[in-house]
Amino acid sequence: MNADDLRTRAAALDEQHAATDLRDRFDLPDGVVYLDGNSLGALPRGVAERVRDVVEREWGRDLIASWNTHDWWDAPLRVGDRVGRLVGAAPGQVVVGESTSVRLHQALHAAAAMRPRRRTVLTDPGSFPTDLYMVDAVAAQVGWTVEHVVPQDVPGRLAGTDDVAAVLLSHVDYRVGRLWDMAGITRAAHDAGALAVWDLCHTAGAVPVGLDEHGVDLAVGCTYKYLNGGPGSPAYLYVARRHQESFANVLAGWQGHADPFAMSPGYRPATGISRARVGTTPMLSLLALEAALDAFDGVEVADVRARSLSLTAFLRKCVEALVPDVEIASPHEDARRGSQVALRHPDAYGVTQALIARGVVGDFRSPDVVRLGVAAPYLTHAQMLTAALELAAVLAGGEQHDERWAARSTVT
Length: 412
Ligand SMILES: *Cc1c(COP(=O)(O)O)cnc(C)c1O
What we know:
By secondary structure, the chain is of the alpha/beta class. It folds into two domains: 3-30 and 300-405, Aspartate Aminotransferase, domain 1; 49-296, Aspartate Aminotransferase, domain 2. Helices cover 36% and strands 13% of the residues. The protein has helices at residues 3-16, 47-61, 66-69, 75-86, 100-114, 129-142, 154-158, 182-191, 283-292, 301-322, 348-357, 381-396, and strands spanning 26-27, 33-34, 43-44, 94-96, 120-123, 145-148, 164-170, 195-199, 218-221, 236-239, 327-328, 340-344, 360-361, 363-365, 369-373. Strands 4-10-9-8-7-5-6 form a seven-stranded mixed sheet, sandwiched between helices. A four-stranded antiparallel sheet has the order 11-12-15-14, covered by helices on one side. The structure holds pyridoxal-5'-phosphate. Residues 99-101, 128, 130-131, 170, 174, 199, 201-202, 222, 235 line the site of pyridoxal-5'-phosphate (PLP).
């Protein structure tokens, strides 16, 4: 197909998917094709007003009473339930607060305490660095051996064994967007008596997750990617209800205490998901996240997913047609692809920067990936075509070699 055919096709697809076009729920600058919602989600409408209200009225006027009158105290659980709906968790199993890194630390320690005689933890060597660092750090603390196994080999590694305490995997690989079989791997873990711990950073809000349905034990994720919670918005931890009584909180902060305001000298864990709380959550960020989640009101993640698959498949088609030499690293098959299209290029950093200069905002992941994240609610098929056309223009003009990209920024 040439560019004109693709333009016609884009218009038809946008028409077909009009019901899931939620662009009017977001504030995005004109002229930008924002393909970095998998790193920092766009700003949903209403968040700025809500933050202003929290600052001026709840904090400014109502002051400390807001912990009760505006129910700041329960916000980590209330917002947790709203995140829970998007990841297939019934209420009372998700708590929001801390960072993903901290939540990983808690989840892994809790897993170790639930499987005290087992000495091995499995994880993907291609995991996001903090996941790798945390698993190594916790392993050193609890006496685990870390085994690096690519996700597709995990069931084989587990079969017939009884040494594995836990498997920690990302549902979608952050670099090229491979989507792993949560149901199958969780089942294989359970057959071997191990716990399944999933990182949902690249799936929550983009791909249906089904934590309860698949019997996942523990899960963590961040909220500033496809959930659009804003820079540094707090992470979450899921503890399946059946594990909550045996959940040992390695970070025994006062907010996870059974009776925090008794101010007693000894720690006594709360019941339920409250026991996974640690300390005071940054309330402005948490309440901004709560407002941001309104963008998902009345929306099923399955519908977001259908739109996302159509967008990523079309982006792939546009790239193949217009820039056939560029290697596409993300899986072709829908069932194996998350919500992004990653390209490999030897000058990936320069390509990414040149695209940004043309208003197509993706990001670079070392060593050679141009990552185009597709946050379906606020993107269109027409924009997928624009991205591919701009990519073709960048490469035709050799813009990736521009000396402006010679020095890398801190954040890539
Ligand atoms: C984004 C991301 C993180 C981020 O961790 P923070 O502690 O929130 O900075 C962790 N793991 C994965 C897989 C991610 O994609």
